[in-house]
Automatic annotation (TrEMBL):
SUPFAM superfamilies: C-terminal effector domain of the bipartite response regulators (SSF46894), P-loop containing nucleoside triphosphate hydrolases (SSF52540), TPR-like (SSF48452). This is DNA-binding SARP family transcriptional activator. It comes from Amycolatopsis magusensis. Belongs to the AfsR/DnrI/RedD regulatory family. It holds the Pfam family BTAD. Keywords: DNA-binding, Repeat, Transcription, Transcription regulation. It comes from the Bacteria. CDD domains: BTAD (cd15831). The keyword Metal-binding does not apply. The keyword Cell wall biogenesis/degradation does not apply. Residues 1-91 bind DNA. Residues 1-91 form the OmpR/PhoB-type domain. GO terms for molecular function: DNA binding.
């Protein structure tokens, strides 16, 4: 079977017959699953794309019905599996017209970069032939509004690439009618305007090229209060001074540079996770037709930001047009877009006042660039959806304490605590090899007291650097007692307790109360039944509460090999925070086992 999104949403069998999908909502569910590119799509996201902000109470049951009908229509050769928190549709990329479009477009761009203009023009034409405008026809309005603009923007970018190839092949006069129509339809697309100017000037119509520039300059001034960009101004000067118009497009837009925090000189370990991130964020992977990005997730203090910065610095050559960084925290998408546009465009002047306008400008700025966007300490999916680049030439590297599983097409790299040997190597980089070698066993005790948490190990190392007269055994003794451990793991503006408590503030009050009670369970791990007994609530309610804490990385989980037995436990430093808070709430029934 072949699946089509770049026009009416359709499925065709091996004989090229259309598979009947009569219901709009069934087509919508199929399109949402296809757009996820072999990734799980949550029930919540499917519901949002079906009904918008107000799904019915029966949403889950209706989604199940639509999926069941799709399974019947598509047959066993197209598996749709239930995988929490949603559904997964797995197909080969070559069976999806969007993936083929992106593969051919990537090939054409590579051919253009190596100067093979004839091959590039042919590949880009073949990519555009996959379109049967308009895309995503026959789906719900929420899905169309959410995804159609980005898809159409991708098509326009490839169309402009194809025109660049034709210009480089010396066909300016043939392109003038097409470009005139495109500029009329898209008057604010600067690249199209420049291509029209090149085609006019290359056809001996310099006056018309200059007039087109002046018309565009006035339009920008009236509509947006800004002027043309530097590339178009340079082209205007070439034509004005009767210099030859460049026969090939500019090699690249001006480099932004790396707007990143510095890499850590003592970064240690994480070789497997680092390799995974580098693989996910290399633009060459766009041939597979997926969004270029990943989420680095883990508990407070586990080293998410440090790993992200280390990876971003390693990727500088992969993104020649620069790297930008924003600290997300609790800030709104509107604020973050303002910072990103200021970094990308070299200042805050001209940044639009409305959210939608900022999103459009942001996507337009990125469409022809290769930029890595680093979004640090993200709170939730809604905060960063508008910030994720929609062009496969750009990448997004996100860090968050939650997995952000509702962002389709963006894999998650989970970080756990460091094993003993990498943690000791990290301590050695902070304090020096000689001190660790002199008390190797004590060094292992210190990282064990730190629970392998990189933030805790860094603070412990910092205290030893500040106290060069201390033997490692002095600090180990101070860390030995759990009740005073968090008081010792504090230095300057670094504090383990504060990092954990800030995470706790991000969950609801009922979950915070459960956190405090569960911290009093005197056992290395506990089941949902035990949690229900301690909390005095039904098992179903206890399950929701422990899963909320697990999502916030305030709890951890172990499963038996067969997946039947699930036990929850606290990281030892998180448990200390929970137990310290127990006197703040009424006494609760605490069970063991």
């Amino acid at each position: 079977m072949r699946f089509q999104l770049l026009g009416p949403v359709e499925v065709r069998d091996d004989a090229n017959r259309v598979v009947e999908l009569s219901a709009c909502k069934m087509r919508t569910v199929l399109a949402v699953l296809l757009l996820a590119r072999n990734r799980v799509v949550s029930d919540g996201h499917i519901a949002e794309m079906l009904w918008g902000d107000q799904p019915p109470a029966t949403a889950a049951a209706q989604i199940q019905t639509y999926v069941s009908r799709l399974r019947q229509r598509l047959g066993p050769g197209v598996p749709i599996s239930r995988q929490l928190p949603g559904y997964l549709l797995q197909i080969e990329p070559g069976r999806l017209d969007l993936a083929e479009f992106e593969r051919l477009a990537a090939r054409g761009r590579e051919e253009a970069e190596s100067g093979r203009w004839t091959e590039a023009a042919a590949s880009l034409r073949e990519a555009l032939a996959r379109w049967r405008m308009p895309c995503l026809t026959g789906v719900t309005e929420p899905l169309s509004a959410a995804r159609r603009p980005a898809l159409e923007e991708a098509r326009m970018s490839v169309l402009e690439d194809r025109i660049e190839a034709d210009l480089a092949l010396g066909r300016p006069a043939e392109l003038v009618p097409e470009l005139a129509g495109l500029v009329t339809a898209h008057p604010l697309r600067e690249r199209l305007r420049g291509q029209l100017m090149q085609a006019l000037a290359g056809s001996g119509r310099q006056a018309d090229a200059l007039a087109s520039y002046q018309s565009y300059r006035h339009l920008l001034a009236e509509e947006l209060g800004i002027g043309p960009g530097p590339e178009l101004r340079d082209l205007h000067q070439h034509i004005l001074l009767a210099h030859p118009v460049p026969e090939t497009p500019a090699e690249a837009q001006p480099r932004l540079g790396a707007w990143l925090p510095p890499d850590l000189a003592d970064f240690t370990g994480r070789e497997t996770e680092l390799g995974r991130i580098l693989d996910l964020l290399r633009p060459a992977d766009t041939q597979l037709g997926r969004r270029v990005g990943c989420v680095v997730a883990g508990m407070a203090g586990v080293g998410k930001s440090a790993l992200a910065m280390h990876a971003a610095h390693r990727l500088r050559e992969e993104y020649p047009d620069g790297q930008v960084y924003v600290e997300a925290g609790e800030r709104s998408s509107f604020e973050l877009l303002g910072d990103l546009l200021a970094a990308l465009e070299g200042g805050v002047s001209g940044v639009p006042d409305g959210l939608d306008e900022r999103v459009r400008r942001y996507r337009a700025v990125l469409v022809d660039r290769r930029v890595l966007v680093v979004l640090d300490n993200v709170a939730d999916e809604q905060q960063i959806r508008p910030l994720l680049p929609d062009t496969p030439r750009c990448g997004a590297l996100v860090t968050s304490r939650t997995r952000l599983a509702a962002i389709e097409g963006v894999p998650v790299v989970d970080l756990g605590v460091l094993d003993t040997e990498p943690a000791v190597r990290f301590l050695e980089k902070v304090i020096g090899a000689a001190r660790v070698e002199a008390e190797a066993g004590v060094a292992r005790d210190i990282v064990r007291y730190c629970g392998g948490l990189p933030l805790a190990v860094r603070i412990a190392g910092g205290r030893l650097v500040a106290k060069p007269h201390w033997r490692l055994a002095v600090l180990a003794e101070r860390l030995r007692l759990p009740d005073r451990r968090l008081d010792e793991l504090r230095q300057a503006d670094l504090e383990v307790r504060g990092a954990i408590e800030r995470t706790l503030l991000g969950v609801d009050e009922e979950s915070r109360s459960a956190f405090r009670v569960l911290g009093g369970i005197d056992a290395p791990g506990f089941s949902v039944d035990t949690a229900a007994s301690a909390l005095g609530v039904p098992v179903a309610s206890a399950h929701d509460l422990v899963e909320n804490l697990l999502d916030a990385r305030l709890l951890e989980v172990n499963c038996s090999p067969d997946g039947q037995a699930v036990r929850y436990h606290f990281h030892e430093l998180v448990r200390v925070v929970a137990r310290d808070a127990i006197p703040l709430i009424p006494a609760a029934r605490v069970a063991t086992g």
